[in-house]
Amino acid sequence: MLEKGWNPRLPYDTLKKDLVDIHPTASSFELMLDKARHHANRCMQVYFKYAKERWDKIHKPPDFKIGDLVLVSTLNFNNIKGLKKLKDSFAGPYMIKALHGPNAVQLELTGELMKKT
Question: Are strands 90-99 and 105-108 parallel, antiparallel or unpaired?
């Protein structure tokens, strides 16, 4: 419509004339909220840095090698017969057959743990 040389009046244009400017307390409230948001963001960044440093200081990556003997947690095994609370929490030791990434290994299971049910 602007290319034809006229600009139509929209209903919103008439409403704009009747609006009062933003109240000063509203603008100061917005400023206060903005400062609080920036402060919270800075606090979160400081905490994230602290948590990462703390984790990195105590966490050591596992150094598994093929042929190492390891214990296996039986917490999620459902193929062990008998009452769960009477069974051992860990089984093994079992030999590592292959490495699949830094935390995943393939074991050479024997006996009751080798069953696939």
Answer: antiparallel
Domain that includes residue 43, residue range: 26-59
Count CA within 13 A, CB hemisphere, residue 72.
19
Q: What is the DSSP letter of 20?
A: P
Report how far apart the first and last C-alpha atoms of the chain are (Å, whole number): 74
Please check whether residues 109 and 75 belong to one and the same domain: yes
**How many domains does the structure of the chain reveal?**
2
Summarised one tens digit per residue, pLDDT across range 29-64 is 888 989 999 999 999 999 999 999 999 999 988 888
Confidence of residue 117 (pLDDT cuts 50, 70, 90): very low
Q: Which two tokens stand for residue 72?
A: 């296996």
Do residues 93 and 70 touch, judged by C-beta distance below 8 A? yes
Task: Specify if 73 maps to a domain.
Answer: yes
